[in-house]
Amino acid sequence: MTYELEIQIEELRAELKNAFDADERREIAAELELAEAEMIVAMAEQHGLVDAEPPF
Fold it and tell me: Which domain of life, per UniProt (predicted)?
């Protein structure tokens, strides 16, 4: 899962770098932020810092 996220993040960074339209840049930046947040959670789960199970 994290490998796919790493690839997605790199692709989004490349797209953001090459985007000219302000609306497109905002959309890509939002997608990038979400992917980076998902990566942080995935890494925390792998290292046992976060419990992946819901508390209920």
Answer: Bacteria
Alpha helices for the chain (secondary structure H): 2-18, 22-46
Average pLDDT of the segment spanning 25-37: 97
The total number of structural domains in the chain stands at 1
Is 54 a domain residue? Answer: no
Summary mean pLDDT of the chain: 90
| Whether the Cβ atoms of residue 8 and residue 35 lie closer than 8 Å to each other | yes
Neighbours of 24 (CB within 10 A): 13
